[in-house]
Amino acid sequence: MSTKGKVTGIIANLVTIEVDGPIAQNEICYIDLKGTKLMAEVIKISGKNAYVQVFESTRGLYVGCLVEFTGHMLEVNLGPGMLSRNYDGLQNDLDTMEGVFLKRGEYTPALSAETKWHFTPLVKQGDVVQASDWIGNVKEGWIDHKIMVPFNFKGTYKIKSIVGEGDYTAHETMAVVEDSDGTEHTLTMTMKWPVKVEVKGYKNKPRPFKIMETGIRAIDTLNPITEGGTGFIPGPFGCGKTVLQHALSKYAEADLIIVVACGERANEVVDIFTEFPELDDPRTGRKLIERTIIICNTSNMPVAAREASVYTGMTIAEYYRMMGLKVLLLADSTSRWAQALREMSNRMEELPGPDAFPMDLPAIIANFYSRAGYVYLNNGQSGSITFVGTVSPAGGNLKEPVTESTKKAARCFYALSQGRADSKRYPAVDPIDSYSKYIEYNEVVEYLDKTVEQGWVDKVLQLKDILLRGKEANDQINILGDDGVPLEYHIVFNKSEVIDFVILQQDAFDRVDASTSLKRQQYMVNKVLGICDAEFNFDSFEEIGIYFKRVINLLRQMNYKEFQSDDFNELEQQVDNLLAQRISESIAQA
After folding, report:
1. What is the DSSP string of 189-256?
2. Please, are residues 138 and 189 in contact by the beta-carbon 8 Å criterion?
C-alpha cells in the first residue's frame, strides 16, 4: 500500500505535506486537485512533514488536498523512438499534446506504443548477460539503437528465450532471462531510469584523451575540447551564442545531439523548434533534427521543471552512450537552472550562499558535470558524452557564483566577448580569457603529437603568446598614440591581427569556411606562424598597417577556397611572393 498524505502548507511551488507512512528523498508524488493530478518531487523530509516541489502551477491548490506517493524517483522512459522528438523537462512528448497551451496535469507518453521496430537479436538462448549488455538491435533513423538489459539488473542472467528477427512494438517481450535464483524476468525494448542517478554499468571511465573535432578554429586550434570533455560558454546577449551552438551541433564529431533549453524565453524555444528542422546535416546529408533530441522548459514554466530538464537530458545522453555512441549534450542555460535552485532554497529558508544561491551550488554543478565523460563498455566498445553548457551571467559579470562554480567543474571555458561581438569578430570567443585545461593533460598532448604534428601544443601556446603581446601593444598604442610607440609595437600588434583574422574569425554562413578540418587548421597555423616568425623592417606605422592588411586579405580569401584547390594555391603563391618581397627589402634596409 502506497504512502498517502495531505497538503498542510503552500508557498508558490513549495508544498508541505503531512504523510502517513515512509517516503524517500526525491520520491515522486501526485497531488489531487479536484481530479487533476499534479506531479511533485520530495526535496526535504522533516519528521512527518514532507516538502515537495511541484512541477506544475499550484494556482488553486488548497490545504487539505490529498496526496499519493509513488515509491519511485523521477524517471524517464528509455527506448527506441526518442530521436527527433521534442520533450519537456518531464519527458512529455510536446508534439502529442493537445492545444497551443500546456494543460496542467496532462502527461503524455514519451515513446510510441504503436510504432513497430525491426528487431535483430544479438544474443542467443543460453548466453549469459548482465546489466547494459546488448541483446538486440533496431534501426532508429540512421542510428543502430541497441536494446539493452535494464541498467538496474544486478548480477548475471541466462537467456531463457529470445524472439527471432522481425517487427515488434516497443512494449512487446523480446527476451526472457533467468537470474541465479531461477526467477524469470521479461525484457522489452524499453526501460525506466531515475534521472538523478548516473547510469553506470560500463567497464571504466578514463580521463578524456581524444580531441573532439568541431570544425571551429577558435575551439579546435586554441582551446580544444576532448571527446567526453566538458566546457561552458558564458554568453552575454547578442554575442553569437546561438550561432555557435548551431555550428557545434552541425559540425562536431558526434553521432547524436541533445539540446536542453532550460528556462529559455518562449521566443528562443520557438526559434529552436523552427530552426533545427531546417538545418542540413553535413555528416549525413539529411536534416540535423533526425539525430537530435530537444528538451525544453520555457522561463514561464514552473521553476522545478527546469531542474528536471537538465537531468532528463543527461540521462537520455547516458542511455545512448551505453550503445557506444558519441553524444553531444548542449544545455542553454545552466544559469536558469541555478536560479531555480535558488528559488526553492529560499522558500525552504535554507542558509543562503553568495548572491542567495544555495551553499551547495558548486557541489551540485560539479556532480552534474561529472556525469559526462568517455567510457569503455563491457563489450570493449567505447561511448562518450561531451557536455557544453552555456551560462548567462547577469550584467556580463564573470565573477558571479554560477560562473565561478562552473569554472571549477568544466575543463574548457569559452568566454564570449561583447567587444569582439560589437566589432563583428565572430565567433566572439575571447582568445585571452578562454582556456582549455585539456592541453595540460599528458594524454591529450601525446594524442595531438600523433594525430596533428609533433610539438603541436607548443605552437598553440606560441599563438596565444603572440595574441597576448598583440593586445598589450594595442593598449599601448591606444594610450600613447600611433606616433608615441616604437614601430615594433605596430608590428607585434599586426602579427596578432593576422592570427585573429585568419585563425580565430570564421564565417558560419559560408559553405567552405563554416567548418575547418584539423588538417587544414594545422596547415594554416604553420603558415601564420611563419609570418609571425619573420623579421620585418618598415619606415612608418602607416606602411606597416597597409602591408599587413594586404597579407590578411589574401589569407582570408584562402579560407573561403577549397583546401589546396587551384584558387587556394594561387592565393597562397601571392602571399608567399608578398612575404618574400618584403623580407628581401627588410634585409636590404638592414
Report:
1. S-EEEETTS-----SB-PPP-SB---S-HIIIIIS--BTT-EEEEE--TTSSHHHHHHHHHHHSS-SE
2. yes
Query: CA angle, 104 as apex, 102 and 110 as ends, to 5°?
Result: 65
Average pLDDT of adjacent 10-residue blocks, the chain of 590 residues: 92 93 94 94 93 92 95 95 92 84 85 94 95 94 93 94 95 94 94 94 94 95 96 81 83 93 79 80 83 87 83 96 96 86 88 92 94 95 94 80 92 91 92 95 96 95 97 96 93 96 93 94 96 91 94 96 96 94 78
* Closest among 457, 466, 391, 51 to 231, alpha carbons compared: 391
Please give the C-alpha separations between residue 209 and each of 221, 308, 454, in angstroms, as whole numbers: 16, 30, 16
Helix 566-589 crosses helix 541-559 at what angle (to 10 degrees)? Answer: 160
d(CA 515, CA 151): 38
The residues near 393 (Cβ < 8 Å, ≥ 6 apart) are 234, 236, 335, 400, 402, 403
Here the cell at position 27 is: 520520491
Share in percent of the chain as helix, strand, coil (round to 5): 35, 25, 35
User: In terms of Cα–Cα distance, which of 271, 246, 428 is closest to 328?
Assistant: 246
Angle at 225 between CA 310 and CA 279, to 5 degrees: 65
The whole-angstrom separation of Cα 403 and Cα 397 is: 9
Q: Which residue do the cell numbers 538496474 mark? A: 152
| Helical segments of 500-565, H only | 518-533, 541-559
What is d(CA 119, CA 114) in angstroms, rounded to the nearest whole number? 15
Q: 258 CB contacts (<8 Å, ≥6 apart)?
A: 292, 293, 294, 295, 313, 316, 317, 327, 328, 329, 330
Count CA within 13 A, CB hemisphere, residue 282: 15
Query: Torsions phi, psi of 130, nearest 5?
Result: -140, 180
